[in-house]
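[Discussion] Sanity-checking designs against the backbone

I'm trying to build intuition for which residues belong where. Below is a structure token string of 126 positions. I'd appreciate it if someone posts a full sequence so I can compare it with mine line by line.
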């Protein structure tokens, strides 16, 4: 059976999935947040909608890896919330990942610049 190439929607999902760990670490940079607040930050800062069923396993893995800590806090709402905080290792990893992202993104911008430029190019139908 031949491999199907991923369609645009699947490609987009894979791209977002690959960047999600960095996005979560970055959302925790300024302050500790609980899960729903992380989801809201991802949407408000970058339009990245993530399901709870995707977020919590990643947060658990980040905790096991020592990049975040978690602590239950009563925020006065009657329901305690688990807040996630970057550790020193988490901050270092976020910086490392952000630098790698910056370099990769600049390389990709250069590569795809021809696709984004206006004007007719060899092979264009219009």
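Best answer:
Here's mine. Compare freely.
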């Amino acid at each position: 059976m031949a491999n199907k190439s991923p369609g645009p929607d699947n490609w987009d999902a894979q791209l977002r999935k690959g960047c999600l760990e960095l996005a979560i670490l970055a959302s925790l940079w300024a302050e500790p947040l609980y899960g729903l607040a992380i989801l809201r930050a991802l949407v408000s800062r970058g339009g990245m909608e993530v399901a709870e069923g995707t977020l919590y396993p990643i947060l658990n893995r980040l905790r096991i890896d020592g990049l975040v800590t978690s602590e239950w806090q009563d925020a006065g709402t009657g329901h305690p919330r688990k807040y996630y905080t970057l550790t020193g290792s988490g901050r270092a990893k976020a910086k490392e990942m952000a630098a790698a992202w910056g370099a990769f993104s600049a390389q990709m911008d250069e590569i795809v610049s021809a696709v984004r430029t206006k004007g007719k190019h060899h092979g264009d139908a219009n």
